[in-house]
Amino acid sequence: MFTFILRRVALIVPTFIGVTLLAFALIHLIPGDPVENLSGERGMDPARRERLLHEFGLDRPLPLQYLEYVGQILRGDLGTSLTTHEKVSEEFLTLFPATIELAFFALLFAVCIGLPAGIVAAVKRNTVADYAVMGVSLTGYSMPIFWWALLLILFFSVQLGWTPVSGRIAVQYDVPAVTGFMLFDTLRAGDVGAFRSALAHLILPSVALGTIPLAVIARMTRSSMLEVLREDYIRTVRAKGLPRWQVIIVHALRNALIPVITVIGLQVGLLLSGAILTETIFSWPGVGNWLIHGVQSRDYPVVQGGILMIATIVITVNLIVDTLYGVINPRIRHGR
Amino acid sequence: MAADITLPAIAKQAAPPSPLVEFWSSFRENKGAVGGLVILVLIVLTAIFADVLAPHSPYEQYRQFVRLPPAWYEGGNWSFPLGTDALGRDMLSRIMYGARYSLFIGLSVMTVSIVCGVGLGLIAAFAGGWIDTVISRVMDLIVAIPSLVLAILIIAILQNPSLGKTIVAVTIVSLPRYVRLVRASALSEMGKDYVTAAKVAGVGKLHLMLRTVLPNCMAPVIVQAALGVSDAILEAAALGFLGLGAQPPTPEWGAMVGDGREFIRSEPWIVTLPGLAILVTVISINLFGDGLRDALDPKLKRS
User: Fold this and answer.
1) Taking a C-beta distance cutoff of 8 angstroms, is the pair B297, B223 a contact?
2) Do B254 and A146 touch (CB under 8 A)?
3) Among residues A2, A43, A267, B149, which is most buried (max CB within 10 A)?
């Protein structure tokens, strides 16, 4: 078991090195160097340019610069934003809870609806219910999420006036950010109005972001359940005369869930991709929104640091899911 | 002598149907897939004949008809059946021409990534050693970064977003699935007897790769390709929406949704219609792709 986990960890080291190389390359692939950007339109005299290049360490050989960059990362230094002059790592950490909150509720929404829908579709195979679930799932799977988010705003915010259009909380509430998780912070402050406002702000973005994972989970649950329901042991427990719901929930679902859990874990990359679009549309102050602003304002330290952090998170989560899957299912562990 | 006469007739009867006929008879059973194919053909025809079908030029700005609602609403005008956008351009014509861009992006991403993916996958499988390691690790790297983030990063490196750069970015993002698929199936094919037989018979390496092994790896690649087109269209539309894809005044659907965002409260059709076009196109491709998979690769058939 231990060697299995160790092997998995060793496998991601090259990937992680690749990510740092990519982030490092970003600065060097973009036309013009930082000194040139500093000098602006008027240009700069060559002697001063040389001095600045030396000061930034840009005149040293590339491999040396790369090693220095990796050293910086390991010390937790991701550079300074060109627009806000704040530390990139600190900006990321203040914004990341907002993204986690959004992604968590999106996934919660997806699992709470997708899982039962998939089970119903499998149990009531080839009925109207099955076709409805599969149809909705196909639509969700094919949905341009930025458009879906705008439709939700149009219907629930503009026409019905049920939910706020953007942001995390109404402006009149001023809740001290202790954890960065708005729902938790408002509860901690004991402000029920603020909690309600935060919850209302969270609903539409979560639904928008959770739709694709919902479709994927429903499909996966359905096919996994169908496979399990065909097994001999299901026929055996049925023959024993157990009630139908007990056969489905206790005996079938438990085994059908293994691949579904893996799929849920692998949604993290998809969620972060989707979060960029969702956060842009709902002006959600998370890392996706921040990254897009970074790209648009050519704030390269932000882009570099953001990519590095997001890739690290995805790699780590995938590693955990992969390893857990191996722990649950010995066939995988001993397969290689 | 009678046997001589009947023999050819029996042999003819026993001949298996051609692969295409067999494929079609299996594909036809799936009603959803046939429906998807029909809609897809209609969209392709619209894209090809947009010049003839579109009532107006997609760029012409009718300044006296700015933000006209679709014709069936009050204040609509039947010369602009789906209304006009913020600059007075005909929505229907823009959506018709938009089909060209989305399909073009989808098809070119698919073609380039299949060619590169098959090439890299075969090289990884056949060369082995460090070449295999490098290719596989680079693919791991691409998969590790969320697709939209990586696409944005590539656009940032290339600078000045455009349709061509969108294609490059989306192609790189969708490469790993083909490389991994081809590598895995080539590796499993290479262990089989017919490959050993071909090797023993002295078949050259290139011939072995392209003529002996490759045809047996293609079924899953074709299935993946159909679904890859829909992913590419969605990805490119998202880039267009963010302003990092096709640039104005190109009537690309994603960019149209992005440009119309500010009018969502007052003139929602500027946003809803191009998005609907994306949704319908992607659904029809996915339906078609599902049918393709069931017909080509019964092993993968979803129960």
Assistant:
1) yes
2) yes
3) B149
Partnered with residue B90 across adjacent β-strands are B84
- Cβ neighbours for A195, distance < 8 A, ≥ 6 positions apart: A183, A186, A187
Residue B12 has pLDDT above 70, yes or no: no
- Considering only CA atoms, which of A82, A81, A110 is closest in space to residue A95? A81
Dihedral, CA atoms, B242, B244, B248, B252, nearest 10 degrees?
-70
ipTM above 0.90, yes or no: no
**Half-sphere exposure for B93 (CA within 13 Å, toward CB):** 19
> Given CA atoms A214, A217, A220, A221 in this order, what sign does their dihedral have?
negative
At residue B97 the predicted structure's pLDDT band, cuts being 50, 70 and 90, is very high
Residue with tokens 């790209």: A295
Number of CB atoms found within 10 A of residue A85's CB: 7
CA neighbours closer than 13 Å in the CB half-sphere of residue A168: 22
Asked whether the beta carbons of residue A311 and residue B302 sit closer than 8 angstroms, the reply is: no
H-type helices in A282-299, by residue range?
287-296
CA A241/CA B270 separation, integer angstroms: 59
Contacts of A12 in chain B (CB under 8 A): 140
Closest CA–CA distance from residue B275 to any residue of chain A (Å):
6
Of A94-98, B44-48, B145-149, the poorest mean pLDDT is in: B145-149
CB A198 within 8 A of CB A167: no
